[in-house]
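ping. complex inputs:
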Amino acid sequence: MLNACLVAAAVWIVYLGAAIAVLRFFRPIRRIFALRAVFLLCAPLVLALVDPVRRLEADALVPARLQFALVTAAAFGAIAYVYLQIYSAIDTSITIRILVHFYEAGSRPLSRAEIEALYPFDELLDRKMDYMVRDGLISGGDSLELTARGRRVGGVLHGVKSLLRLGDGG
Amino acid sequence: MSAFLLSWGIAAICLLTVAAAQTAAFRWFPPTDRFRFLRRALGSGLIASAVIAWLAFPSLGATEWPREIVVLAALVALGFLFLLTLSFYTAVDGSLRTRMLILLDRSLGGKGTRSQVMEAYGLTTLAERRIEKMRIGGMLEPRGHGHVLTPKGRAMSAVFAGVKRFLRLGIGG
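pong. complex structure:
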Protein backbone atom coordinates (compact mmCIF):
# COMPACT_ATOMS: atom_id res chain seq x y z
CA MET A 1 0.00 0.00 0.00
CA LEU A 2 2.74 2.42 1.04
CA ASN A 3 4.74 1.50 -2.07
CA ALA A 4 1.76 2.24 -4.30
CA CYS A 5 1.29 5.67 -2.68
CA LEU A 6 5.00 6.47 -3.02
CA VAL A 7 4.99 5.46 -6.70
CA ALA A 8 1.89 7.60 -7.31
CA ALA A 9 3.49 10.60 -5.55
CA ALA A 10 6.73 10.14 -7.51
CA VAL A 11 4.81 9.99 -10.81
CA TRP A 12 2.98 13.22 -9.94
CA ILE A 13 6.24 14.99 -9.08
CA VAL A 14 8.08 13.75 -12.20
CA TYR A 15 5.19 14.67 -14.47
CA LEU A 16 4.68 18.09 -12.84
CA GLY A 17 8.41 18.87 -13.15
CA ALA A 18 8.53 17.75 -16.77
CA ALA A 19 5.36 19.69 -17.64
CA ILE A 20 6.68 22.90 -16.05
CA ALA A 21 10.00 22.50 -17.89
CA VAL A 22 8.15 21.99 -21.17
CA LEU A 23 5.93 25.02 -20.58
CA ARG A 24 8.81 27.30 -19.59
CA PHE A 25 11.39 26.37 -22.20
CA PHE A 26 9.56 25.22 -25.34
CA ARG A 27 8.20 27.58 -27.96
CA PRO A 28 4.37 27.87 -27.59
CA ILE A 29 3.63 26.02 -30.83
CA ARG A 30 5.62 22.98 -29.60
CA ARG A 31 4.28 22.86 -26.05
CA ILE A 32 1.20 20.69 -26.52
CA PHE A 33 3.19 18.16 -28.58
CA ALA A 34 5.95 18.15 -25.96
CA LEU A 35 3.43 17.60 -23.13
CA ARG A 36 1.95 14.66 -25.03
CA ALA A 37 5.42 13.22 -25.56
CA VAL A 38 6.18 13.52 -21.83
CA PHE A 39 2.95 11.67 -21.07
CA LEU A 40 3.70 8.91 -23.56
CA LEU A 41 7.24 8.47 -22.20
CA CYS A 42 6.14 8.45 -18.54
CA ALA A 43 3.36 5.88 -18.96
CA PRO A 44 5.57 2.91 -19.94
CA LEU A 45 8.11 4.02 -17.31
CA VAL A 46 5.48 3.57 -14.61
CA LEU A 47 4.50 0.20 -16.03
CA ALA A 48 8.15 -0.90 -15.99
CA LEU A 49 8.86 0.36 -12.45
CA VAL A 50 5.98 -1.38 -10.70
CA ASP A 51 5.40 -5.08 -10.65
CA PRO A 52 1.64 -5.15 -10.89
CA VAL A 53 0.85 -8.82 -10.79
CA ARG A 54 2.01 -9.46 -7.24
CA ARG A 55 0.19 -6.42 -5.88
CA LEU A 56 -3.25 -7.15 -7.29
CA GLU A 57 -5.58 -9.86 -6.15
CA ALA A 58 -6.55 -12.59 -8.57
CA ASP A 59 -9.85 -11.94 -10.29
CA ALA A 60 -11.88 -14.64 -12.02
CA LEU A 61 -12.80 -12.48 -15.02
CA VAL A 62 -10.09 -9.82 -15.51
CA PRO A 63 -6.38 -10.74 -15.48
CA ALA A 64 -4.23 -8.79 -13.00
CA ARG A 65 -1.98 -7.32 -15.71
CA LEU A 66 -4.98 -5.98 -17.66
CA GLN A 67 -6.40 -4.51 -14.44
CA PHE A 68 -3.14 -2.73 -13.80
CA ALA A 69 -2.85 -1.47 -17.38
CA LEU A 70 -6.40 -0.07 -17.29
CA VAL A 71 -6.00 1.57 -13.87
CA THR A 72 -2.62 3.09 -14.83
CA ALA A 73 -3.93 4.38 -18.15
CA ALA A 74 -6.98 5.94 -16.46
CA ALA A 75 -5.00 7.51 -13.61
CA PHE A 76 -2.20 8.77 -15.80
CA GLY A 77 -4.60 10.00 -18.47
CA ALA A 78 -6.44 11.93 -15.75
CA ILE A 79 -3.23 13.59 -14.53
CA ALA A 80 -2.17 14.56 -18.05
CA TYR A 81 -5.68 15.81 -18.87
CA VAL A 82 -5.81 18.07 -15.81
CA TYR A 83 -2.41 19.59 -16.66
CA LEU A 84 -3.37 20.16 -20.29
CA GLN A 85 -6.69 21.75 -19.28
CA ILE A 86 -5.07 24.13 -16.80
CA TYR A 87 -2.29 25.01 -19.21
CA SER A 88 -4.52 25.63 -22.21
CA ALA A 89 -7.09 27.57 -20.15
CA ILE A 90 -4.46 29.93 -18.75
CA ASP A 91 -2.68 30.27 -22.08
CA THR A 92 -5.58 30.73 -24.47
CA SER A 93 -8.62 31.87 -22.47
CA ILE A 94 -9.96 35.23 -23.59
CA THR A 95 -11.66 35.71 -20.22
CA ILE A 96 -8.37 35.25 -18.36
CA ARG A 97 -6.62 37.68 -20.69
CA ILE A 98 -9.32 40.31 -20.06
CA LEU A 99 -9.06 39.62 -16.31
CA VAL A 100 -5.29 40.25 -16.45
CA HIS A 101 -5.94 43.57 -18.25
CA PHE A 102 -8.21 44.58 -15.35
CA TYR A 103 -5.51 43.45 -12.90
CA GLU A 104 -2.87 45.57 -14.62
CA ALA A 105 -5.19 48.60 -14.63
CA GLY A 106 -5.30 48.48 -10.81
CA SER A 107 -8.13 50.55 -9.31
CA ARG A 108 -8.79 52.45 -12.58
CA PRO A 109 -12.11 51.33 -14.14
CA LEU A 110 -11.83 49.89 -17.65
CA SER A 111 -14.67 50.30 -20.14
CA ARG A 112 -15.61 47.80 -22.85
CA ALA A 113 -14.15 50.13 -25.50
CA GLU A 114 -10.80 50.21 -23.68
CA ILE A 115 -10.77 46.40 -23.46
CA GLU A 116 -11.50 46.20 -27.20
CA ALA A 117 -8.63 48.63 -27.88
CA LEU A 118 -6.26 46.46 -25.79
CA TYR A 119 -7.40 43.24 -27.42
CA PRO A 120 -7.53 43.08 -31.27
CA PHE A 121 -10.54 40.76 -31.60
CA ASP A 122 -10.56 40.92 -35.41
CA GLU A 123 -7.00 39.53 -35.48
CA LEU A 124 -8.08 36.83 -33.05
CA LEU A 125 -10.98 35.70 -35.28
CA ASP A 126 -8.69 35.82 -38.31
CA ARG A 127 -6.21 33.55 -36.54
CA LYS A 128 -8.99 31.14 -35.53
CA MET A 129 -10.12 30.95 -39.16
CA ASP A 130 -6.55 30.08 -40.19
CA TYR A 131 -6.57 27.25 -37.62
CA MET A 132 -9.90 25.99 -38.98
CA VAL A 133 -8.46 25.93 -42.53
CA ARG A 134 -5.39 24.07 -41.20
CA ASP A 135 -7.61 21.53 -39.40
CA GLY A 136 -9.67 20.88 -42.55
CA LEU A 137 -12.94 22.27 -41.17
CA ILE A 138 -13.13 24.99 -43.82
CA SER A 139 -11.34 25.56 -47.11
CA GLY A 140 -10.19 28.65 -49.00
CA GLY A 141 -8.26 31.85 -48.35
CA ASP A 142 -10.44 34.95 -48.12
CA SER A 143 -13.54 33.21 -49.43
CA LEU A 144 -14.34 30.37 -47.04
CA GLU A 145 -16.37 27.22 -47.53
CA LEU A 146 -17.29 24.51 -45.05
CA THR A 147 -15.76 21.13 -45.85
CA ALA A 148 -17.77 17.91 -45.39
CA ARG A 149 -15.90 17.38 -42.11
CA GLY A 150 -16.63 20.91 -40.96
CA ARG A 151 -20.31 20.42 -41.74
CA ARG A 152 -20.41 17.19 -39.71
CA VAL A 153 -18.57 18.71 -36.73
CA GLY A 154 -20.70 21.88 -36.91
CA GLY A 155 -23.89 19.77 -36.97
CA VAL A 156 -22.89 17.85 -33.84
CA LEU A 157 -21.86 21.02 -31.98
CA HIS A 158 -25.07 22.76 -33.01
CA GLY A 159 -27.01 19.77 -31.63
CA VAL A 160 -25.13 19.95 -28.32
CA LYS A 161 -25.72 23.71 -28.05
CA SER A 162 -29.43 23.26 -28.79
CA LEU A 163 -29.74 20.45 -26.24
CA LEU A 164 -28.06 22.55 -23.55
CA ARG A 165 -29.82 25.77 -24.63
CA LEU A 166 -26.48 27.58 -24.71
CA GLY A 167 -27.50 30.27 -27.16
CA ASP A 168 -24.87 31.69 -29.52
CA GLY A 169 -21.99 31.38 -27.06
CA GLY A 170 -18.42 31.95 -28.20
CA MET B 1 -18.71 -11.53 -9.71
CA SER B 2 -15.55 -9.62 -10.62
CA ALA B 3 -14.70 -6.95 -8.02
CA PHE B 4 -12.72 -5.11 -10.70
CA LEU B 5 -15.68 -4.96 -13.07
CA LEU B 6 -17.95 -3.93 -10.19
CA SER B 7 -15.72 -0.95 -9.33
CA TRP B 8 -15.55 0.12 -12.99
CA GLY B 9 -19.32 -0.25 -13.24
CA ILE B 10 -19.71 2.09 -10.27
CA ALA B 11 -17.32 4.55 -11.95
CA ALA B 12 -19.38 4.42 -15.17
CA ILE B 13 -22.60 5.10 -13.22
CA CYS B 14 -20.88 8.06 -11.49
CA LEU B 15 -19.80 9.45 -14.88
CA LEU B 16 -23.36 9.23 -16.24
CA THR B 17 -24.78 10.85 -13.10
CA VAL B 18 -22.28 13.72 -13.25
CA ALA B 19 -22.97 14.24 -16.98
CA ALA B 20 -26.74 14.23 -16.34
CA ALA B 21 -26.45 16.77 -13.49
CA GLN B 22 -24.34 19.08 -15.66
CA THR B 23 -26.67 18.72 -18.65
CA ALA B 24 -29.57 19.70 -16.35
CA ALA B 25 -27.60 22.69 -15.02
CA PHE B 26 -26.89 24.01 -18.52
CA ARG B 27 -30.31 23.20 -19.95
CA TRP B 28 -32.64 24.39 -17.23
CA PHE B 29 -30.80 26.96 -15.13
CA PRO B 30 -30.22 30.54 -16.25
CA PRO B 31 -26.52 31.57 -16.39
CA THR B 32 -26.86 33.45 -13.08
CA ASP B 33 -27.89 30.29 -11.16
CA ARG B 34 -25.96 27.72 -13.17
CA PHE B 35 -22.71 27.76 -11.23
CA ARG B 36 -24.44 27.84 -7.87
CA PHE B 37 -26.33 24.68 -8.91
CA LEU B 38 -23.12 23.06 -10.19
CA ARG B 39 -21.33 23.79 -6.89
CA ARG B 40 -24.20 22.19 -4.97
CA ALA B 41 -24.27 19.21 -7.36
CA LEU B 42 -20.53 18.72 -6.84
CA GLY B 43 -20.93 18.92 -3.04
CA SER B 44 -23.80 16.41 -3.01
CA GLY B 45 -21.92 14.15 -5.44
CA LEU B 46 -18.84 14.10 -3.22
CA ILE B 47 -20.91 13.22 -0.14
CA ALA B 48 -22.82 10.52 -2.07
CA SER B 49 -19.64 8.99 -3.51
CA ALA B 50 -18.01 8.89 -0.07
CA VAL B 51 -21.05 7.15 1.42
CA ILE B 52 -21.33 4.69 -1.51
CA ALA B 53 -17.60 3.85 -1.37
CA TRP B 54 -17.84 3.33 2.42
CA LEU B 55 -20.86 1.02 2.09
CA ALA B 56 -19.63 -0.84 -1.01
CA PHE B 57 -16.16 -1.44 0.44
CA PRO B 58 -16.81 -5.05 1.61
CA SER B 59 -18.01 -6.03 -1.91
CA LEU B 60 -14.98 -4.53 -3.68
CA GLY B 61 -12.61 -7.24 -2.44
CA ALA B 62 -9.86 -4.64 -1.86
CA THR B 63 -8.59 -6.19 1.34
CA GLU B 64 -5.10 -4.77 0.83
CA TRP B 65 -6.43 -1.18 0.93
CA PRO B 66 -7.83 0.55 4.04
CA ARG B 67 -11.44 1.69 3.75
CA GLU B 68 -10.46 5.38 4.19
CA ILE B 69 -8.13 5.22 1.16
CA VAL B 70 -10.92 3.73 -0.98
CA VAL B 71 -13.22 6.59 0.09
CA LEU B 72 -10.49 9.13 -0.70
CA ALA B 73 -9.95 7.54 -4.13
CA ALA B 74 -13.71 7.77 -4.79
CA LEU B 75 -13.68 11.50 -3.91
CA VAL B 76 -10.70 12.17 -6.21
CA ALA B 77 -12.31 10.15 -9.02
CA LEU B 78 -15.61 12.04 -8.74
CA GLY B 79 -13.79 15.40 -8.70
CA PHE B 80 -11.96 14.39 -11.86
CA LEU B 81 -15.15 13.20 -13.60
CA PHE B 82 -16.77 16.52 -12.71
CA LEU B 83 -13.87 18.47 -14.23
CA LEU B 84 -13.80 16.23 -17.31
CA THR B 85 -17.47 16.71 -18.21
CA LEU B 86 -17.57 20.38 -17.16
CA SER B 87 -14.63 21.23 -19.42
CA PHE B 88 -16.54 19.70 -22.35
CA TYR B 89 -19.60 21.92 -21.74
CA THR B 90 -17.61 25.10 -21.18
CA ALA B 91 -15.51 24.42 -24.30
CA VAL B 92 -18.64 24.02 -26.44
CA ASP B 93 -20.21 27.11 -24.85
CA GLY B 94 -17.23 29.47 -25.06
CA SER B 95 -15.45 28.24 -28.19
CA LEU B 96 -15.01 30.85 -30.94
CA ARG B 97 -14.39 28.14 -33.52
CA THR B 98 -17.64 26.35 -32.63
CA ARG B 99 -19.60 29.55 -33.06
CA MET B 100 -17.90 30.35 -36.38
CA LEU B 101 -18.58 26.84 -37.70
CA ILE B 102 -22.26 27.12 -36.78
CA LEU B 103 -22.47 30.65 -38.25
CA LEU B 104 -20.98 29.49 -41.53
CA ASP B 105 -23.30 26.50 -41.67
CA ARG B 106 -26.58 28.03 -40.47
CA SER B 107 -26.41 31.75 -41.28
CA LEU B 108 -24.20 31.88 -44.36
CA GLY B 109 -25.23 28.61 -46.04
CA GLY B 110 -21.77 27.05 -45.78
CA LYS B 111 -19.94 29.81 -47.73
CA GLY B 112 -18.75 33.32 -46.96
CA THR B 113 -15.83 35.73 -46.93
CA ARG B 114 -13.78 36.41 -43.80
CA SER B 115 -15.36 39.85 -43.42
CA GLN B 116 -18.87 38.34 -43.71
CA VAL B 117 -18.04 35.85 -40.93
CA MET B 118 -16.69 38.66 -38.71
CA GLU B 119 -19.74 40.82 -39.39
CA ALA B 120 -22.12 37.95 -38.59
CA TYR B 121 -20.14 37.21 -35.44
CA GLY B 122 -20.57 40.70 -33.99
CA LEU B 123 -17.17 41.47 -32.51
CA THR B 124 -18.60 43.68 -29.75
CA THR B 125 -20.34 40.68 -28.18
CA LEU B 126 -16.98 39.01 -27.58
CA ALA B 127 -15.86 41.37 -24.81
CA GLU B 128 -19.39 42.17 -23.64
CA ARG B 129 -20.31 38.55 -23.01
CA ARG B 130 -17.15 37.83 -21.06
CA ILE B 131 -17.41 40.96 -18.94
CA GLU B 132 -21.00 39.97 -18.13
CA LYS B 133 -19.90 36.45 -17.16
CA MET B 134 -17.17 37.81 -14.88
CA ARG B 135 -19.66 40.21 -13.29
CA ILE B 136 -22.09 37.32 -12.63
CA GLY B 137 -19.18 35.29 -11.23
CA GLY B 138 -18.44 38.08 -8.73
CA MET B 139 -15.05 38.98 -10.22
CA LEU B 140 -15.96 42.42 -11.58
CA GLU B 141 -18.15 45.23 -10.27
CA PRO B 142 -19.37 48.31 -12.16
CA ARG B 143 -17.69 51.62 -11.35
CA GLY B 144 -18.11 54.85 -13.32
CA HIS B 145 -18.26 54.09 -17.06
CA GLY B 146 -16.51 50.76 -16.69
CA HIS B 147 -15.71 47.92 -14.31
CA VAL B 148 -13.07 47.17 -11.67
CA LEU B 149 -11.98 43.92 -10.05
CA THR B 150 -13.62 42.78 -6.83
CA PRO B 151 -11.30 41.37 -4.11
CA LYS B 152 -12.16 37.86 -5.38
CA GLY B 153 -11.38 38.88 -8.99
CA ARG B 154 -8.12 40.54 -7.87
CA ALA B 155 -7.00 37.38 -6.03
CA MET B 156 -7.81 35.17 -9.03
CA SER B 157 -6.23 37.46 -11.61
CA ALA B 158 -3.06 37.77 -9.47
CA VAL B 159 -2.75 33.97 -9.60
CA PHE B 160 -3.34 33.86 -13.38
CA ALA B 161 -0.90 36.73 -14.03
CA GLY B 162 1.70 34.99 -11.84
CA VAL B 163 1.29 31.64 -13.63
CA LYS B 164 1.50 33.33 -17.04
CA ARG B 165 4.72 35.09 -15.99
CA PHE B 166 6.21 31.91 -14.49
CA LEU B 167 5.45 29.80 -17.56
CA ARG B 168 6.49 32.61 -19.93
CA LEU B 169 3.15 32.42 -21.72
CA GLY B 170 3.07 36.06 -22.81
CA ILE B 171 -0.28 37.84 -22.91
CA GLY B 172 -2.00 34.79 -24.48
CA GLY B 173 -5.71 34.64 -25.26
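Chain B has seven helices and three strands.
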